[in-house]
Specification:
Length: 414
C-alpha cells in the first residue's frame, strides 16, 4: 500500500495561483480553473503549471483527499473508467515512513466501502477494479466489495508472490499478497478483457512442415466425441494418396463429408509427412488471435516483487527514503494489459509513489492518479517528469519507451 498521512496539507494561496495565470516559460499552459480536460476537472481543482507540461495531458495527478475527489469526478467520468487500481491501507497497525496504517477494523472497512461506492459509478460497462490486499484483510474486504459490486461481478482472486526471500522472524514466511478483481459487469468484462501475450513455447508450436505459402500452422484433431453427432459426420475420409480413414470408435469427424472434401482440396487437412497419417486440421498462425488466458498465480519472475520496485525507485530517486511496500511496474503493467487498451482511462485513488500513472503513460493509456500526501509532488510529479524525459527502468524496455508525452498536475482547493 502507498498512502500518506492525510494531515497538515498546505495548498497554494490565491496569490500564488494568480501569479501562475501567466504563461510559464517553455510554452507551459496558464493556470485556469476553467481549462477543460478529458477528466473534467471539477471546479475545486486548480492547475499548477510549475509542475506540469500541459493542462489537458493524458497523464494527470490530482493532489486531493480521494473520497471528495472521487465524488466530484462522478459528473465528469461517470461510466468511462476502464480500469481502477487500488493499493489501499492494509490496516496492519503499523506506521510507515510515508503513511500511517492504524485505523480500527470497523473504520478501515467503512473508509474503503465509501470509496468503492464512489468508484463504481465511474466504471465503464466493461470496466474492472483491482484491489491489492494481504491475507489479514482480504476476506473482510472480499465480503465488503461483494456488497458494492455484487457477488455475481466478482471475477477472481489473484495470488501475487511479492517476495522471494524467507522471513525467519515470523511463524510463517508470508511471501504473497492478493489482488481482488471485480467488474462492473462480469459478462461484459469477460468479452472485452485481453489475453496475455503468447509465450515462445506457444509460438513454437506453429511450424510450416509443408512450405504452405500461408505461413506457419499447427495441427489439431479432426475428430470429436460422437455422442451428439449427426449421421453426416460418420463416413470414410479419402486422403489424396487414396488411403481411407474412419473416425476412431465412439468419435466422429468434425466436418460433414462435403465440407471435409472442400477442406482437403483447399490444403487445410494434414495427413502427415508421408500422406498416410490420421487426418488433422491445419490452423494457421495468421488467422488466429494468439494469446494466453491469464492464470491466477502471478510469480515474482513474471511480475516482480516489492524489492524490485524499491530498487527501481532508488534508481529514480537516489538518496531519498523510498516507500516501504511499493508495487513493481511489471505488476501494474500486467493489470493494465489485461483490463485496458491504448487510449482507455485508468484511475488510481491511492497513487503513492506514482507507479500506476507512470506505467499507464508508457503503455499509452490515459491515467488520473489521486494522492493527498506531499509525495504527490516529491514523487509522483517528479517521476512523471523523468518518464517524459525517457526513464529506462521498470517496463520501459517492454514497450520500447524512450520518452515523450505530457503531464498535468492539479491541486484540490475548497
Amino acid at each position: 500500500m502507498n498512502r500518506a498521512d492525510e494531515t497538515n496539507i498546505e495548498y497554494a494561496s490565491d496569490e500564488e495561483h494568480s501569479a501562475q495565470a501567466t504563461v510559464a516559460a517553455g510554452g507551459r499552459s496558464p493556470a485556469n480553473a476553467e481549462l477543460r480536460t478529458w477528466w473534467g476537472p471539477p471546479s475545486e481543482c486548480v492547475y499548477d503549471p510549475s509542475l506540469s507540461s500541459r493542462h489537458d495531458a493524458g497523464s494527470a495527478v490530482l493532489r486531493a483527499e480521494n473520497l471528495s475527489a472521487l465524488q466530484a469526478l462522478r459528473s465528469h467520468l461517470e461510466g468511462q473508467v476502464r480500469c481502477v487500481y487500488l493499493d489501499p491501507p492494509y490496516n496492519n497497525q503499523e506506521v510507515y515512513r510515508h503513511y500511517k496504517d492504524n485505523h480500527s477494523h470497523d473504520e478501515w472497512l467503512k473508509l474503503l466501502l465509501e470509496r468503492l461506492r464512489a468508484i463504481k459509478g465511474l466504471m465503464a460497462p466493461d470496466g474492472s477494479v483491482w484491489i491489492s490486499i494481504d491475507d489479514r484483510g482480504m476476506h473482510y474486504l472480499k465480503v465488503a466489495a461483494d456488497s458494492v459490486f455484487g457477488r455475481e461481478n466478482f471475477v477472481t482472486t489473484i495470488i501475487w508472490q511479492q517476495r522471494t526471500t524467507r522471513e525467519n522472524r515470523k511463524v510463517f514466511s508470508n511471501n504473497h499478497e492478493y489482488l481482488l478483481v471485480y467488474a462492473r459487469n462480469a459478462k461484459a468484462f469477460k468479452r472485452s478483457r485481453n489475453q496475455l501475450p503468447p509465450t515462445d513455447e506457444l509460438l513454437s508450436r506453429y511450424k510450416n512442415r509443408d512450405n504452405d505459402p500461408r505461413g506457419p500452422w499447427q495441427s489439431v484433431s479432426a475428430n470429436a466425441q460422437g455422442g451428439h453427432a449427426t449421421a453426416a459426420q460418420f463416413y470414410e475420409v479419402v486422403a489424396p494418396n487414396g488411403k481411407r480413414h474412419r473416425p476412431p470408435e465412439g468419435r466422429c469427424w468434425v466436418y460433414s463429408e462435403e465440407k471435409m472434401k472442400a477442406e482437403i482440396a483447399a490444403g487445410n487437412i494434414w495427413f502427415g509427412k508421408t500422406g498416410n497419417g490420421v487426418p488433422r486440421l491445419k490452423k494457421f498462425l495468421r488467422d488466429k488471435k494468439i494469446g494466453l488466458t491469464p492464470h491466477t498465480l502471478w510469480t515474482a519472475d513474471q511480475v516482480g516483487t516489492n524489492d524490485e520496485a524499491k530498487k527501481n525507485l532508488l534508481q529514480l530517486f537516489p538518496g531519498q527514503a523510498v516507500f516501504d511496500t511499493p508495487k513493481p511496474e511489471r505488476l501494474i503493467s500486467r493489470i493494465l494489459h489485461i483490463a485496458t487498451n491504448p487510449g482507455d482511462i485508468v484511475l488510481d485513488p491511492y497513487l503513492g509513489s506514482g507507479t500506476t500513472v507512470a506505467v499507464a503513460h508508457k503503455m499509452g493509456r490515459r491515467c488520473l492518479g489521486l494522492e493527498q500526501g506531499e509525495h504527490a509532488v516529491t514523487y509522483c510529479a517528479r517521476r512523471m517528469e523523468l518518464v517524459i524525459d525517457g526513464d529506462d527502468g521498470g517496463v520501459s524496455a517492454d514497450y520500447d519507451w524512450r520518452g515523450g508525452g505530457d503531464f498535468s498536475f492539479y491541486e484540490w482547493r475548497t
